[in-house]
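4.2 Preliminary Data

To establish feasibility before requesting continued support, the project team ran the inverse folding procedure on a target of 428 residues. The structure was first converted into the token representation described in Section 3, and no sequence information of any kind was made available to the design step. The complete token record follows.
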């Protein structure tokens, strides 16, 4: 029998040692005490790990049975996301720590080393399970209760980051056999360095809170960020990055704090209202704008019968022009062919069933330029769907640019869409 302090003298240990002695003796190795100690340690560790795995699989099997019997949606999602399996990793080290004393005496230095290794494994496994639970809770909240698509992933990342920082502190405290509180007190010396290292994460966390509190950004929003190539839909918002998929399927990553500090354009309100703006500037050659004669007016009424009501009403006014303030504004005059065309544009737009009546419909003259008179067409489609919007927009522009010929007007070659500061057409 061994006299070493490695093996304690309780009944379980003595029984196991006797069987190890017999096994080694049958193999002709009974005169190697070190080999007996190694075999004893290996068997105890193997038993502890095997017992832990058995308990783990038994718990997982039991939970699976309960979930399937209850047939709940949340239970099925727990199984699909493997939450129970991830949490059960904590069971083997727990059983191992419970069985380690059977392998060593209290005075054994090796026992203290192995116990520390087991504790570190247990702490990491516990944190892994807690992280799985937090991710599942986030998934439930984000898919079922986050009706506004708030960017909650940044908050989850912060919580997980704090969790693993705590794990790192606890692991170091176990290795050096010091209190975690003492380590935390020592970390205050490196606070400035940590602030510098995690600057982007801290700024991203603060920006995420600001965006959530002010309802600035949702996953799925169409945004445009000045000074960057970002112009598309938000796919993901994390602690350090906002992922944006442009309409050409390229991905652009922008730090959250850049959105808060420099600003961005969010088209969510346009999508929520279901109306999208059309803003076109048609530049008309100055020489083609003339006083409207009776013959010209009659030919226009003949070509566009809907103009007769306007011409008759305008003829009854002292100055020959009308500007209604009602829900369907007609803005025009019978004095010039441009005034008649302006009246026709508003008449045509008000009659167009694809435009929103809840939004402004207007045709007006901007200050003339060196290129000619500027006629602005301003209205909103009754849909924000991209393809449908482009179809409505194109049909209106095509019709008006061809109809103006009947009024004797000539479009200048510099006619353009309204251009915003980023150099992209304003069609929103």
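Position-by-position output of the design step:
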């Amino acid at each position: 029998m061994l006299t070493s302090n490695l093996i304690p003298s309780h009944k379980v240990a003595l029984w196991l040692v006797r069987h190890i002695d017999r096994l080694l003796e049958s193999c002709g190795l009974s005169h190697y005490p070190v080999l007996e100690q190694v075999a004893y340690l290996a068997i105890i560790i193997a038993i502890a790990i095997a017992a832990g795995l058995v308990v783990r699989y038994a718990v997982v099997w039991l939970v699976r049975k309960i979930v399937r019997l209850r047939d709940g949606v949340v239970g099925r999602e727990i199984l699909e996301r493997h939450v129970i399996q991830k949490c059960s990793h904590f069971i083997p080290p727990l059983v191992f720590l419970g069985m380690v004393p059977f392998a060593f005496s209290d005075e054994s230095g090796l026992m203290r080393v192995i116990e520390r290794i087991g504790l570190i494994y247990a702490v990491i496994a516990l944190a892994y399970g807690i992280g799985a639970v937090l991710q599942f809770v986030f998934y439930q909240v984000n898919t079922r209760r986050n009706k506004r698509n708030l960017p909650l992933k940044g908050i989850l990342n912060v919580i997980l980051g704090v969790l693993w920082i705590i794990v790192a502190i606890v692991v170091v405290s176990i290795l050096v056999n010091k209190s975690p509180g003492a380590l935390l007190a020592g970390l205050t010396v490196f606070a400035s360095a940590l602030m510098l290292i995690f600057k982007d994460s801290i700024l991203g966390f603060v920006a995420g809170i600001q965006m959530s509190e002010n309802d600035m950004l949702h996953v799925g929003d169409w945004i445009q960020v000045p000074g960057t190539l970002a112009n598309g839909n938000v796919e993901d918002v994390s602690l350090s990055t906002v992922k944006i998929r442009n309409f050409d399927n390229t991905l652009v990553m922008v730090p959250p704090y850049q959105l808060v500090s420099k600003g961005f354009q969010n088209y969510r309100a346009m999508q929520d209202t279901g109306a999208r703006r059309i803003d076109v500037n048609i530049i008309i050659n100055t020489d083609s704008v003339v006083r409207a004669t009776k013959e010209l007016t009659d030919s226009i009424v003949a070509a566009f019968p809907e103009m007769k009501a306007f011409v008759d009403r305008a003829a009854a006014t002292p100055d020959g022009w009308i500007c209604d303030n009602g829900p369907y504004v007609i803005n025009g005059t019978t004095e010039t062919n441009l005034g008649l065309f302006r009246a026709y544009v508003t008449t045509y737009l008000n009659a167009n069933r694809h435009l929103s009546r809840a939004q402004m419909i207007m045709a007006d003259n901007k200050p003339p330029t060196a290129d000619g008179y500027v006629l602005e067409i301003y209205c909103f489609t009754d849909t924000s769907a991209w393809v449908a919007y482009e179809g409505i927009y194109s049909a209106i522009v095509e019709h008006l640019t061809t109809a103006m010929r009947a009024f004797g007007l000539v479009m200048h070659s510099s006619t353009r869409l309204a251009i915003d500061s980023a150099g992209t057409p304003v069609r929103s």
